[in-house]
Amino acid sequence: MRKGLSWFNVTSIALGFAFLYIPIVLLVIYSFNASRMVTVWAGFSTHWYWQLFQNQQLLDAAWVTLRVAFLTATVATVLGTLAAITLTRYGRFTGRTLFSGMVYAPLVMPEVITGLSLLLLFVAVDIDRGFWTITLAHITFTLCFVSVVVQSRLVTFDRSLEEAALDLGCTPFRTFFVITLPIILPAVISGWMLAFTLSLDDLVIASFTTGPGATTLPMRIYSQVRLGVTPEINAACTILIAIVTVVVIFVSIMTKRQEIERQKAERLAAAG
Amino acid sequence: MSTGVTEKTQKTIGGIRRTFAPWNDPQAVPLIRYKNVTKRFGEFVAVDNLSLDIYEREFFALLGPSGCGKTTLMRMLAGFEDPTEGQITLAGQDLVGTPPYKRQTNMMFQSYALFPHMTVWDNIAFGLKQDRMEKGAIDARVEEMLKLVKLEKFAKRKPHQLSGGQRQRVALARSLAKRPKVLLLDEPLGALDKKLREETQFELMDIQMELGMTFLIVTHDQEEAMTVADRIAVMNHGKLVQVDQPAVIYEHPNSRYVADFVGDVNILDATVETVEPGMVTLRPVAAPERRFRIAQDCAAKPGDTVAIALRPEKMRVELDPPADTNVNCVQGEIWDIGYLGDLSIYHVELPGGVRVKAAKPNLTRMVERPITWDDKVYVYFSPDAGVVLTS
């Protein structure tokens, strides 16, 4: 095998990364711009971050978003985990294919369609649209992501661990909480974080399902940008990017560590 | 590694072992009874109308190839599977429908199934905590179990910080901690290397004797079953083929299947010539000019085609014909030699092209053995060395 990279590899990687990240890097840089003009650099400043924290509308929107995301992630994790357990544990029950199809459909469904159909539903049953309808909609579309993450962990779960607990006198209900859940917990947490970030940056579904009084941060940013991009928005986006990046890195480190530990345990078992 | 058994019990093991035979006692009440048990998974019949009695304090082995239904039979006793038909009783109580967490059986799993997020101590204490035993009693029992399996120093470790042998001991301690009526062992030593496995087999026997428990072991390793068990049930296709003590299974197999599965064997096809009480005369297909005499009562009639099972260690290979004319003898040529150190295995080709194996202990330290490839040799065995198999 050849060592190192050819010039072709290097160029294509550089171009690829540039394509993906230059816009984001520019946004972050300009959030520290002292000038009011978004495109003219006038020295470093954290002025816009201060300005941001004075902007009550943006802060309100951020608060709504965080509450929606937290509630969404929690409910979606519970339901998604239950769905994953049903799909991996209960064999071929009647309607399994339908159930699994229905759980995973939102994964591939265009957001506009999910949003529109939910809107029609909320109108049909005549719910006041706002915080709760956004949350419900977000639970609906993040549930499948949690389910995928948890299911992939459950597939490799050694059933004899649960059998051993039952055998030692533990009821099935308790077994889930003292054996199964602690072991799959890293996957469940990953699922929670995934749902949290998905809810945090969703614009399309939130726009469809919201009502007066409940504006999420992405919606607020979008509406402000239509009046012209301000460095304030750049600052808000930078903070959002930071949150999402931290969460994503945390999740990937956790999955990686889990994988390494699993391999280590397997090596030990093989050697032992 | 010492056995963890006191001097006193050590001395009595022989005495107990020699006289222990409740299966011959018509008064004895079995602890475990399988009555006409059938288990089907869809079309597949895992256990086929099987009845079996296991007695208290017995070390019982279920032996068979994978897929013969032995594990299913055990899992039905633990409660992980319910029989499709039939009844299973433990100490007189019908078990069918009782969930595993309400049964007085504990199982040691093939994968050990140690809880990875708990320490050795918590693993062993897990079952006791489910019974809401008080803390002092739990501590005392866990200490006792750790001592029994010689892991006192490892109480605070997590399972992934232990070697395979240590994990196996934790699994054993955990399944013994609740003092179950029956301990179920599912291929318990399969993951250990040969030396450790042999040591552990003797340890298991000592622990079983010391605690006075009933052990049911599932294994595909016939040596393991022969070593540890009081009785062995050889299974095939969901049925019991033979249930008896290890020596009977080995020396008097009731079928080709058992003879072939347990130990090394030569199976020679033969035709029955005459049948007398205690003696059968046969004409082997491989050497039709010879007559073999087997000391055995036989239900076969003259003219029937049967099989003679001969264990390699009961056959002699010599360059000279035997002096005693009573022994069965056949001439052949050395085809192959396997030198094992303690034994040499000679593969001898008989005139008809059939090859037989004969084991010869290497009693001297000669490097050049007198019998070598292509030698013309005599293979012989006494009339009480072989078994006539009609099925």
Automatic annotation (TrEMBL), chain A:
Parts forming coiled coils: none
Presence of keyword Transport: yes
Keywords: Cell membrane, Membrane, Transmembrane, Transmembrane helix, Transport
Membrane topology, from the record: Multi-pass membrane protein
Domain ABC transmembrane type-1 stretches: 62-252
Classification via InterPro entries: Bact_Polyamine_Transport, MetI-like, MetI-like_sf
TM annotation in the entry: 7-32, 68-90, 102-125, 131-155, 176-198, 233-254
Localisation per UniProt entry: Cell membrane
UniProt record similarity statement: Belongs to the binding-protein-dependent transport system permease family. CysTW subfamily.
Name of the protein in its database record: Putrescine transport system permease protein
Automatic annotation (TrEMBL), chain B:
One Pfam family here: TOBE_2
Gene Ontology molecular functions: ATP binding
SUPFAM superfamilies on file: MOP-like (SSF50331), P-loop containing nucleoside triphosphate hydrolases (SSF52540)
SMART domains in the record: AAA
Superkingdom of origin organism: Bacteria
Catalytic activity as recorded in UniProt: ATP + H2O + polyamine-[polyamine-binding protein]Side 1 = ADP + phosphate + polyamineSide 2 + [polyamine-binding protein]Side 1
Keyword Protein biosynthesis set for record: no
Enzyme Commission number, as recorded: 7.6.2.11
Protein keywords: ATP-binding, Cell inner membrane, Cell membrane, Membrane, Nucleotide-binding, Translocase, Transport
Keyword Transport belongs to the record: yes
Occurrences of domain ABC transporter (ranges): 32-262
Subunit structure: The complex is composed of two ATP-binding proteins (PotA), two transmembrane proteins (PotB and PotC) and a solute-binding protein (PotD).
Role: Part of the ABC transporter complex PotABCD involved in spermidine/putrescine import. Responsible for energy coupling to the transport system.
Entry's family note: Belongs to the ABC transporter superfamily. Spermidine/putrescine importer (TC 3.A.1.11.1) family.
NCBIfam families: potA
Name of the protein in question: Spermidine/putrescine import ATP-binding protein PotA
Biological source species: Ancylobacter vacuolatus
Gene: potA
